[in-house]
């Protein structure tokens, strides 16, 4: 009787578990534009950084662009909405003028409030962040392309904002605070 009871518990446990289909982070780009995307016919998918390809982006990176000082803090995070579990990158930043006046600082924002997050690893190896700036309703939005310079042994990355520029509930476009040309930053 104990064996039957144990077997029922094990079977019931398996029935309640979600079957997890794992897609490596570097393969997610292959599903962009597909009708059912990464879900396909699955109930639960984990977009997992199984090969630690995101690790090379993690850290603090600093550089200058058009008289502004930038510090980018990139970290790895995981989220789970019940259908898709995903390893992804968050980018926090501080932008100051050459004399130290703070233009924008997102370093202390919680994960769900940062302006730059998620995205995907492109076939080129660049990580593409979704960007919704402080004034995203007035054109501060788009994609930030981030590429590790292999010749630097992982100590330098280049990044730039490809402006989407969509405006919602705003009559005047605001200036971009993110670099719109390649900016080289160094790991701190």
Could you please describe the fold and organization of this structure?
The protein is mostly beta strands. It has a domain at 54-74 and 88-187. Helices cover 8% and strands 42% of the residues. It has an 8-stranded antiparallel barrel with strand order 3-4-5-7-8-9-10-11. The longest helix is centred in the first third of the chain and has 15 residues, at 2-16. It is globular, with a radius of gyration of 21 Å. The protein starts with a helix and ends with a strand.
Brief account:
Helices cover 8% and strands 42% of the residues.
Helix content: under 10%
Question: How many beta-strand segments?
Answer: 11
Structural class: mainly beta
H/E element order:
HEEEEEEEEEEE
Largest sheet: 8 strands, antiparallel, barrel
- Distance from first to last alpha carbon: 63 Å
Unreliable spans are: 5-16
Q: What would you report as the Rg, rounded to the nearest angstrom?
A: 21 Å
Overall mean pLDDT stands at 89
Shape: globular
Q: Give the number of helices.
A: 1
Strand arrangement within the widest β-sheet reads: 3-4-5-7-8-9-10-11
């Amino acid at each position: 009787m104990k064996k039957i009871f144990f077997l029922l518990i094990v079977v019931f446990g398996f029935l309640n578990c979600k079957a997890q289909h794992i897609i490596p982070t570097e393969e997610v780009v292959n599903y962009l534009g597909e009708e059912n995307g990464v879900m396909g016919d699955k109930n639960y998918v984990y977009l997992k950084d199984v090969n630690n390809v995101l690790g090379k982006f993690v850290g603090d990176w600093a550089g200058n662009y058009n008289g502004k000082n930038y510090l980018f803090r990139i970290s790895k995070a995981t989220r789970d909405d019940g259908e898709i579990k995903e390893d992804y990158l968050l980018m926090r930043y501080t932008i100051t003028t050459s004399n130290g006046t703070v233009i924008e600082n997102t370093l202390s924002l919680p994960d769900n409030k940062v302006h730059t997050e998620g995205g995907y690893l492109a076939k080129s190896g660049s990580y593409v962040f979704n960007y919704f700036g402080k004034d995203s309703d007035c054109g501060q939005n788009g994609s930030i392309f981030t590429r590790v310079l292999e010749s630097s042994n992982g100590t330098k990355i280049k990044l730039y904002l490809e402006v989407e520029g969509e405006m919602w509930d705003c009559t005047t476009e605001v200036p971009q605070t993110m670099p719109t040309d390649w900016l080289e930053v160094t790991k701190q």
